[in-house]
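Q: Structure tokens for this one, please.
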Amino acid sequence: MKFPTLHVGRGSQVGPLTVFPLWADKPAPTKRFFSNKSGSLVVSEREGSPVVGELVVTNNSVEPVLLLAGDLLEGGWQHRAIAEPVLIAAGASEVVNVKCVERGRWSGAGEQINRGRKTGPRLRSKLEGSMQGKQHEVWAEVDRFSSMQFTSKTASYVDYLNLVEEQAVGSDVRPLDGQVGVVVAANGHPIMLEVFATHDDLVQAWDALISGALADTRGVRSVRTPSRRVHRFIDGLESVELSRISKAGLAEKVVGVGEADNLFTSISGVEWDAELVHLLVLNQRHDLFADAH
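A: Here is the predicted structure, written as tokens:
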């Protein structure tokens, strides 16, 4: 599968972030699915004895539900983040792989709360892609936020995200008509590119996506990123082929191979019945990832 043809709009400033809208030359998927914010999921610990790296997700909706790496599942015995994408069939239950983002707690309720929130790009890089890390590396990444004049009694990423959201200045930047993706940049260069199946999917993910990026760039000065750097970043992805590597529930996980598949770019996505329904590109050359390798 070819990397999609993308069209870039004018960037808007959101605190330290410059956010560029993306449109894609691809039709909407012929099959429907819901995002993890649909409210139809029941997320619980493994019956009998909870397991740090696994949760049971039941989809009570009439359509499949797509969970993405970095989606936060809060509560339970500890807060977790989805470790790899999975498309769960309507009425089905799946044991999903997760990473703990709260190592100081191992007690609580049997069910998780799904608020539709996401981790920032740094933590997402530890969950999938070429920088994917082990559980102790995820904990180390969460501990990094303690150096930002922040403390949590349970070493919780969710506590940090709560603080950032409380202090965040409201923004009127919203997805534009037909927009299906976004490039998020900071300090003059792109951090990440993310493309969703439809405009509605992007709208549902928008607040969580921006909040996660703001959490990673707290304290970074506001520098507008020029559009030419975003165009150059995307131009470097045009030759990429997306290759299937593993099952993701009903769907399949794909990764980018080709000239851009090097030390500088992490490319992953989800394909369902030969249609690309999600794409994530992380720019590993960005200063944000300098000590995350």
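A few notes: The first helix runs from residue 121 to 125. The first strand starts at residue 6 and ends at 8.
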